[in-house]
C-alpha cells in the first residue's frame, strides 16, 4: 500500500474554537458540542445533539465552527501530556450545532483526505506520541499550539483505502454503541421488574386476606380428623 506523507495543515483547514458555555444577548442560540462530548465519543451523530447544552454564538463563529459531516474535532487542552488530542468524527450534518472551546475543528480537503480515516489515524499510538511530545505547558495545564496542529504528520493512502479503513472502525463503533444501548435497556428493564416485584410483595404482605379464608368450625375439624384416621 502506497502512503503519502503530509502535514495536516497542507490538506485541511484547522480552527481552534473559542465559543464558551455562556448565552449572550444579541447572539444566536446554539447547541454546544463540548470537550467531554468529543472526549467520550468515537463519532458525533445527530442522536447526541439533544443532550448538548444550549449556549450562544455570533454569526462568524457559527459559520466557522458549525459541525458538518466529514469534519473531525479533537481536544487540544489537557491536564496531562498523555491524554491530549482525543478526536471524534462528525458523522452527520448537525443543524445549529457548534464546537465548544478547548477543542479544534478540522475540515479536510475531501479530494485528498477522508474524515473517517483522519479520525482513525489520530487515534493511533503514532499520533498520540506526537501530541505527548509536542504539548506545551506544565503542572495542570497542557495545550497543543497552532503550529503543532498544522504540523501533525499524516500518512495517507488512496481515498478508496481511506474509506475502507475508516468504515471498518466506524462499523465497530456502531456495534459498540448498539451493545451499550441493549445493555442499558436490560438494566432499566431489570430495575423496573425489581421495582414491580417489590410493590407486589409489599401489597401481598400488607393485604388483609382473612375474609377470603374458609372458617372451619370445631365439629367439622373433628369429623375430618376421624375420617383421616
What this model shows, in words?
- It is globular, with a radius of gyration of 30 Å.
- The protein is α+β, with helices and mostly antiparallel strands.
- Strand 11 and strand 12 form a beta hairpin.
- The strands form four sheets. It has a five-stranded mixed beta sheet with strand order 2-10-6-8-4. The chain has a three-stranded mixed beta sheet with strand order 5-3-9. The protein has a three-stranded antiparallel beta sheet with strand order 7-12-11, with no helix packed on it.
- It has helices at residues 8-11, 35-39, 59-65, 115-122, 125-134, 146-150, 159-206, 218-228; strands at 4-7, 12-16, 28-33, 43-44, 53-57, 72-75, 77-78, 87-90, 97-99, 103-108, 136-138, 141-143, 153-156.
- The N and C termini lie far apart (94 Å).
- 43% of the residues lie in helices and 22% in strands.
List strands and helices in order, with pairings:
Layout: E1 4-7, H1 8-11, E2 12-16, E3 28-33, H2 35-39, E4 43-44, E5 53-57, H3 59-65, E6 72-75, E7 77-78, E8 87-90, E9 97-99, E10 103-108, H4 115-122, H5 125-134, E11 136-138, E12 141-143, H6 146-150, E13 153-156, H7 159-206, H8 218-228
Parallel strand pairs: 3-9, 4-8
Antiparallel strand pairs: 1-13, 2-10, 3-5, 6-8, 6-10, 7-12, 11-12
Helix pairs in contact: 4-7
